[in-house]
């Protein structure tokens, strides 16, 4: 194999590949990226046996061939090369070495046989549809903060993507929850997606998917089966196993009868929570919201470190209410809100609180209160 490729294109491809590769693995070949050169392009394939990314990039191929090399090492080398450099990758197929040359820099990297590299079995997808990148980006970005990190409740360790019945028709919906907060984000159902099975997309896959969704003009082809999901553009495909489990009935958690309405500037609210929580103890991070007519008082009382209060002018016309929340949860929800105002719907100090972006019901958040 002998290939020349521009440094920025190689860095982008290796950035995607090394994101999938685990830094610590007991199977040496899984630390490597499979490089295949043929025709006028070079393909980079990386996997951890649950996720596989395949990236095709135009290149000058003088001699076709394939090999595998350490993904993190090659990524670090390319990252440190000067901008605009042409990188030459060459191996003779026998010495077990890949030569990397750029200008006056030269590296010789150990390789492993390409035959040992595991390729994820292709799946029969029951549904395939196309969705604009900004739509998918919004669905996953706004939901992912609520993904659980508790390994025992593995079915909550991802984003549940499915087609749901909603007022006004069907919606493509992403939901995530960890039992303390919940995010439910809706979008129009893309043509052909109506029959898509509901799947739980793992946390790591959601993180890697973000790299595919940066281009606002991109159209993403989504293929779904009961066991796998694939997101693809003409250059890149990300294939992942889905979490084998049933997502709980989240609709029972979303309160329907909350009538006490608070409207507040989302950015001001997030900043105020951040300021007062500075003095809170790390364990609880509790912040108390005291509501009176058109006034919200945020307060923290931590016996070990001090106390803080801050007042905000808000729109509120119901009876006074005191309610406590984890400060981190409030900040994370407030940071998702794109519109100027956040709307909080309360019932009592012990019941879940509903949060929306103004009057937009396509993004709904639920947060459980805590004692303060």
Descriptive report:
- This protein is α+β, with helices and mostly antiparallel strands and 372 residues long.
- The protein has three domains: 2-116, Roll (DNA Polymerase III, Chain A, domain 2), CATH 3.10.150.10; 127-252, DNA Polymerase III, subunit A, domain 2 (DNA Polymerase III, Chain A, domain 2, Roll), CATH 3.10.150.10; 255-367, DNA Polymerase III, subunit A, domain 2 (DNA Polymerase III, Chain A, domain 2).
- Helix content is 17%, strand content 44%.
- The chain contains six helices and 26 strands.
- It has a 13-stranded antiparallel sheet with strand order 5-1-7-8-9-6-2-3-4-17-16-15-10. Strands 14-11-12-13-26-25-24-18-22 form a nine-stranded antiparallel sheet.
- Helix 1 (7-20) runs antiparallel to helix 2 (71-80) and helix 5 runs antiparallel to helix 6 (327-336).
- The radius of gyration is 25 Å and the shape is elongated.
- The model has no long low-confidence stretch (mean pLDDT 93).
- Belongs to the beta sliding clamp family.
- Keywords: Cytoplasm, DNA replication, DNA-binding, DNA-directed DNA polymerase, Nucleotidyltransferase, Transferase.
- InterPro entries: DNA_clamp_sf (IPR046938), DNA_polIII_beta (IPR001001), DNA_polIII_beta_C (IPR022635), DNA_polIII_beta_cen (IPR022637), DNA_polIII_beta_N (IPR022634).
- This is Beta sliding clamp.
- Residues 1-120 form the DNA polymerase III beta sliding clamp N-terminal domain.
What separation lies between the terminal Cα atoms?
65 Å
Q: What count of structural domains?
A: 3
Q: How many alpha or pi helices?
A: 6
What is the CATH C level class of the largest domain, in words?
Alpha Beta
Structural class: alpha+beta
By CATH, the architecture of the largest domain is named Roll
Low confidence ranges: none
Strand percentage lies at 35-45%
Work out the radius of gyration.
Answer: 25 Å
- Report strand order across the widest sheet: 5-1-7-8-9-6-2-3-4-17-16-15-10
Largest sheet: 13 strands, antiparallel
Q: What is CATH's topology name of the largest domain?
A: DNA Polymerase III, Chain A, domain 2
Tell me, what's the shape?
elongated
Number of DSSP-assigned strands: 26
- Summed over residues and divided by their number, the pLDDT gives a mean of 93
